[in-house]
Amino acid sequence: MNEQVRRMEDFQSELMELNLGPHHPSTHGVFRAVVELDGETVVNVTPHLGYLHRGYEKTCENKHYHQVIPLAERCDYMGASSNSLAFCLTVEKMLGVDVPERAQVIRVMFAELSRIFSHLFWLGTHAHDVGAMTPLFYNLREREEIMNLFELSAGGRLMPNYLRIGGVIQDLPEGFVERLRAFTEHFDRRVDEYETLLTKNVIYMDRTQGIGVLSLKDAIGLGASGPMIRGSGLAWDIRKTEPYCGYETYDFSVAVEKGCDAYSRYLVRIREMRESNRILKQTLEKLPGGPIRARQPGVVFPPQEEIYTKMESLIHHFMLVVEGLKAPVGEYYQCIESPRGELGCYLVSDGGPRPYRLKWRAPAFVNLESLAIMARGHLFADLIAILSSVDIVLAEVDR
Amino acid sequence: MAIERHLNDTVHVTNLEWFVNWSRKSSMWPLGFGLACCALEMIATFVSRYDLARFGMEVARPSPRHADLMIVSGTASKKMIPAVRRIYEQMAEPRWVIAMGACACTGGIYKNYAVVQGIDRHLPVDVYIPGCPPRPEALLDGILQLHAKVMKEQSIHNPRVTCVKVAGE
Amino acid sequence: MINSYLPILVILLVSAFIGLAIIVLSTLLSRKNPTPIKLMPYECGMDPIGGARRRFSVRFFIIGMLFIVFDIELIFMFPWAAVYDKLLVFGFVEMLIFVLVLLAGLIYVWKKGALEWQ
Amino acid sequence: MNQEAIKDRLTAKFGQDAVLDTTVFRDQLSVTVIKDKIREICRFLRDEPDLFFDFLSFVGGVDKHPQTPRFEIVYQLNSSRHKHRFRIKTRVEETADGLASIDSVVGVWATADWHERETAEMYGITFKDHPDPRKLLLPEHWTVFPLRKDFPLEGTDDTPDLPPQKI
After folding, report:
1. Complex ipTM, two decimals?
2. Which residues of chain B neighbour A137 with C-beta distances below 8 Å?
3. What is the spatial distance between Cα D125 and Cα D75, in angstroms, rounded to a whole number?
4. At C71, which CATH number?
């Protein structure tokens, strides 16, 4: 039967072009790719981006420095706090503001919470794309708990907008620390639950092992970072190589796998969730007292309660809101380890109250470049598994 | 509907109308149409904590052929708007549109060259939900208001004809 | 004699009625508003590339045929399972042979590689 | 290897006139190199064993409108082996017909493909012998370069909502 099939096959199979279009249940947003198929095997994938291009960098050039923070958070709505952290760190390095100890620990807490937040949603939708429906409901149950934490501290569920240049907007409410401790205690058991669903699941292993192979050389050449490059064998984590916000004082290990395929990226992200949980526990122990924002008039907002009592704080606050802060002339590139990889913010300032140029190095945008290489030769269903293993967020891809 | 030619507004038409509206309201299938950040809050509304299934709406159909309600959740960029218009036109009547989030209502914080300043320049919108992103309770409230609006429709006397608006009018 | 076949007639009538009623009511009650764009094939919101009438790879048809064969096998099991307790050992052995025959077919197809895609 | 040493290696290899300008700001140094030799410089930075910049973070454009030469292309480099970073920049002049052009570095780093396509469509800079010079983020029917300083934020009337109707 197979030989006759192959003989009949030779003379008539021309390529079929299929539109994996902007509105598709498994493209995690408005991503479009024209896929050339030979029967069921993918011959070539040409992505078409821009369906969620919102002019982020141009809008930032017309905003004051502290007005850019909500825009930065909407640029990657899955790990919102790590985006505003990247922007705030860049501006603080340019202005030479040193953030107090307590604010640094709170920032690490929020960065790790948003990493777990983003990996949970990725795990749910990735398993859903591969056919497992249950993990989505397990993961979104944990996400609701993290959303409660964000809401408790900053009011916003998805995008808390909690960070400011020079620290954070307000101190942690009293119930926060106990609730976070309760979360960190039972979260490890939850990750074990997810692992029982997927890690040793034969169907999941067949669907993801050996699929979407990205060798280390290709990964570095194509600029992949974060779980993509750690899944291909390079233990490169910016929290370890260029520590920021006091990450050198925390003891955690970098999750790295040698398999280079979708399954090893899954294992990397699962271990990263456990490592983030470890860091959260350490932040709870070492949470120091003290102020939550630096005191630098004309650059950093004065404390809220002082505005109503002290005259000069009111003037500083007023001048900062009306005219914005004056950054020194120069350019700086600061990158952090966002849930998707190296999130860089290249800021050029001409001394004015607005960023002269803000180049956002979005990891999802760069990781997506390797989709064509990984998908070639696999079946169409594997293309969906590979696309979800890259963990793209379209607002970051299209900026 | 085709039937109203024979039933010229006798009393049972209003009961039939009530029945038709009630059946449409209580099993309105949304189209899985998430554009940006509001999509995550829409998904949070579908899932167990806020549970859209209480209103018979947990089936988010990917194809516009089976969907009745298009929840435009997120920013409609100028490159995406032709696709949004086409998907809306390919939905079967009767169809409704909810503009979820500030970006869908008025372009939100992205007042620039790349974003359509409000989805109602292209689609007839039934319910606007402010918020960036709106909380799941706000989405549920918007859906309940849409249900109330559907109940008041005269779906037999003069059924709604909804079509895409002429470009940018 | 006649009334022993009456239930079958009733089942046939009821199922035919329900099937037809759904079709007739939906065409009667639904509103027709066929715009040219609505009649275009839906391809994720984009212009459809290429027509639907094109030469597909043969493997799709093979997998289609295999599905039909094993699906019919399953349909035969429903009535058998309904009256399983009355058929005692005879029914069981009969169905066992039926399943074994099809199992041989499955093994043949598996060895010939028709289930693989390449 | 600190950034000063990297710069000295560059000047040693390509001579004094290749390095036009060096700016230091808060422990980060950025070197402006000559536009014509950009590909050799990039290949040298990647292949030199003790520099080994095999990871290109991004290629970005900056519009320094009043100054001439007008555009500035930024290459942010990183090394996966030595874990040190470096930034080189080139100035690109906008010619009379309004088309600045520079050699593409896709041959050196494969990741530059999309970065250059995005910089090209946002600033109107053509990258010579780029494998796939289509538009990436903007709609096909647009002919504007949004990130230029003289382009208004709200857009002009040739950034319409819909493509011209194909009747």
Report:
1. 0.87
2. 47-48
3. 15
4. 1.20.58
